[in-house]
Amino acid sequence: MSFKDLGLAPYLLETISKREFEKPTRIQEEAIPVILKGQDVLGIAPTGSGKTAAYVLPLLQNLNRTTKTRDRQIKILVLVPTRELAVQVENVFRTLSEHVRFPFKSMAVFGGASINPQMKGMSRVNVLVATPGRLLELTESNAIRFDDLETLVLDEADKMLNLGFKKEMDRIFELLPPRRQNLLFSATLSLQVQSIERVLLKRPAIVKIEPVKETIELINQLGYAVAPEKKGPLLRHLIRSNDWKQVLVFTSSVYQADLVADKLRKNGINAQATHSKKSQGKRRATLADFIAGDLTVLVSTDLLSRGIDITYLPVVINYELPRSPKDFVHRIGRTGRAENPGDAITFVTEEDQHHFGVIQKKMKHQVPMIDADTLDLK
Prior knowledge:
By secondary structure, the chain is α/β, with parallel strands linked by helices. The chain folds into 2 domains: about 5-210, 3-Layer(aba) Sandwich (Rossmann fold), CATH 3.40.50.300; about 215-375, Rossmann fold (3-Layer(aba) Sandwich), CATH 3.40.50.300. It has 15 helices and 14 strands. The protein has a 7-stranded parallel sheet with strand order 3-4-2-5-6-1-7, with helices on both faces. A 7-stranded parallel sheet has the order 10-11-9-12-13-8-14. Helix 2 (about 25-35) packs parallel to helix 3 (about 50-65), helix 6 (about 130-140) crosses helix 8 and helix 14 crosses helix 15 (about 355-365). The longest helix is centred in the first third of the chain and has 14 residues, at about 85-95. It is globular.
């Protein structure tokens, strides 16, 4: 099946061709036609399945059929859990709207940044991508109204609920007009997500994409049994000996992320850390450098386990294990995307062995191990 078969307009097909999207993913095949019809959708799909474009493309086309956007009256509201995802989703809207035939403006708003520029930029916005808390602040300041809202999207609803946004989301739902299209996307269908589904969705089309086994198989996993004090030398050894040009490293704390990046730089490796203690501007600039290939190593907390989407990211390293097996899968899922193979390497100390065993059991995948003591790290 091609994108043309899905009923997309020529100006969107022009953008798709320019971006060299070869064919739609499964969730795009199933979701795009029903969203074009204005139907509610419950989409359950794993990270990296192409769900953002699955709703962005048809919503852009549906905007073409609506009346002119009134000042500070948005047409489409997308709620997301993190600043990073807000920026990422808004960028997809902006990128795929390149050839639309109507006045279009999208904007991302989030906490941790000054609210005044966001308030001033709200004029004539068609599509607003927002974190719940900042959206409520803008509403309370009369910077935005929802009378003309046509579509509400909840992206990564499971993550928003896990982060404790339910009260804010309930307040937002009360502000929205009852007649609208609702699209709910989530990686999992938890009881919390089901409760919101029952409140929001009216006779939805259910699009459920099971995680494909081949996706994990595209990720070449390898573990290193290593003493804590040898993690730094091992990391530098692997980067240099493999001549890696783009490596995403995960740590479990802000302190450790800064420490690892600092030691890499002192040893002549181009590295930067990104985490919640960095300013939003700094985080965006660092991520942009990494995506562009101008930064060899990006060291992050789980802040980026869902918030980064690089089609050809070759290597992910778990410098420290995350707390849950689910977070581990999200981390390594940054590589091995869009049918491109990638490497996921995990450092395992003696203290980590039991927890790593639990992670492997949950993944139903045994990771081969190498003893770091057998390597010449000098």
